[in-house]
Design a protein that fits this description.
The protein has helices at about 1-20, 20-35, 40-50, 60-80, 80-95, 100-115, 120-130, 140-150, 155-170, 175-185, 195-205, 215-225, 230-240, 245-280, 285, 290-300. By secondary structure, the protein is mainly alpha-helical.
Length: about 300
């Protein structure tokens, strides 16, 4: 009997030693992904996740997040299966919301929702949730949020988000981008052209060496032209020609403004000529300043 129990114990120990651990499945999944065998990688990630499904230890949560992130990445990066990738990224966020993998998942999911589903609100929600985790790329993510509001034509909220960005990340490389976007949003709102022009000018003052500075000057010219100030618009665009990366575009706008000025002048001259043709002919006395009563005697 003792020998039988001992043999059973050895058998159980041997079977335990041969059983694959979640980390083994994760490693096989990574190897399969590297060797361009995505289907095999997905099988291994699923085995790892299933082995961890009922384990709530801290280590198990870490491994579970890695398994889900790995599977989602395979669906998206290797197989381009958007629907499946979105589903697994969402599962990762739900099960391991505070993990580093969940942060990455939110950022990727935001892009998938924007590009493939045109779900701009859903994309904003994911980026906003990611920002609450204070990620190192916070300024960039906040700028993306502002751009999404601009794309939604919610210019007031776009302006608000850009202001928040410049206040929260004053030394970020995205501040000049944010100021430019802010000025564009203001320009899209009724009755705020002058304020938009000042916003573009502020960008040029604060960041004179920014690649956006000549674009800001170009936009200032467009605002002047929209207000009917074609001469001032031309002056602004001539200045922009010195540094703008697309001088042909600027020259085209200058040419259009000059045509508008010429057409306006021609119309004014035409109206004056028509007015003169409709007037009765003046007598010789009227021509030298005589009174109409005196002119009447001339015709008699």
């Amino acid at each position: 009997m003792r020998r039988l129990r001992f043999a059973l114990a050895l058998l159980a120990l041997a079977s335990t030693g041969c059983r694959d651990k979640p980390v083994d499945h994760l490693q096989r999944a990574r190897d399969a992904t590297f060797e361009k065998r995505p289907d095999e990688a997905l099988v291994e990630y699923r085995k790892a996740f299933d082995a961890l499904r009922h384990d709530e230890s801290a280590e198990a949560l870490v491994l579970r997040a890695r398994a889900l992130k790995g599977a989602a990445d395979v669906y998206w990066l290797e197989q381009r299966k958007v629907k499946e990738a979105v589903g697994v990224y969402r599962e990762l966020i739900q099960q391991c919301p505070d993990s580093p993998e969940a942060l990455d998942a939110r950022i990727i999911l935001a892009e998938l929702l924007r590009v493939h589903y045109r779900d701009l609100r859903g994309s904003i929600d994911q980026l906003t949730a990611a920002l609450k985790l204070n990620p190192p790329q916070g300024a960039e993510l906040h700028y993306q949020v502002a751009k999404l509001y601009f794309e939604l034509q919610d210019y007031q909220q776009c302006e608000l988000e850009t202001r928040r960005l410049t206040e929260r990340f004053p030394t970020s490389a995205f501040v000049d981008d944010s100021l430019f976007l802010q000025a564009q949003a203001i320009a899209m709102m009724e009755g705020r052209r002058q304020e938009a022009s000042r916003a573009f000018a502020d960008l040029r003052t604060r960041f004179p060496d920014s690649e956006l500075a000549p674009h800001a000057l170009f936009e200032m010219g467009k605002l002047k032209a929209d207000s009917g100030e074609n001469e001032k618009a031309i002056e602004t665009w001539v200045e922009a020609l010195k540094t703008h990366p697309d001088p042909s575009l600027v020259q085209d706008y200058i040419s259009r403004a000059r045509k508008r000025i010429a057409n306006t002048h021609s119309e004014a001259v035409g109206r004056e000529a028509a007015f003169d043709r409709n007037r009765p002919a003046r007598s010789s006395l009227e021509a030298v300043g005589g009174k109409p009563e005196e002119a009447s005697t001339e015709h008699n």
